[in-house]
Amino acid sequence: MMLLTILNQRWCLWALFIVNLLGSIYGFYWYKNQLAVTPTHFLIFVPDSPTASSAFTIVLLLYLLNRKSPLMEAFAAITLFKYGIWAVVMIVWGGILDQQPFLQALTWQHWMLVFSHLGMAAQALLYAPVYSYQLKEIGIVAGWTLLNDAMDYSFDIHPWLHPELELYQPYVAIFTVCLSLVSIFLVASLQKMQGKYILFSKISK
Fold it and tell me: Tens of pLDDT along 158-169?
């Protein structure tokens, strides 16, 4: 309850809004090289993590305006959790496969990405009691998420992997689809928490 009270504070919402906005901008910048060589009609499927954090940025802005978008909440929750966990697993997996010792293989940027993506996944869960999405929104986002997976691994437009990890791409694809299903069912199961804590009818000053 205390944590949810903190999450309800305007200063906390603004702080998360700014962090997610800046993180999204950096995320799109991080994808700049891949976006530059991707055909235009595939661009929408490429920047996974920054698209997820951008969606949550919009959700936070709407909360600050005492508004909600069930579809945007569902999209943010599913994709934040999925790509947050996915990135951490890929970074650690790549570090294990690297010819250098694990701690030498991972740079400060890797660790920054690990902690920032864990934060993404955590955000998806922390606001579960105040989400307003229903199964309809979950179904729409589920369709998009699985379509994105199909496009990524059918046309090889998934996020660039560690060179050693490229050899395991079929296993990465299987893991990705399984993680999508886990994320969808997890977020759907969180629906029972909705309404247990009313935050945004009167946001704390």
Answer: 999 999 999 999
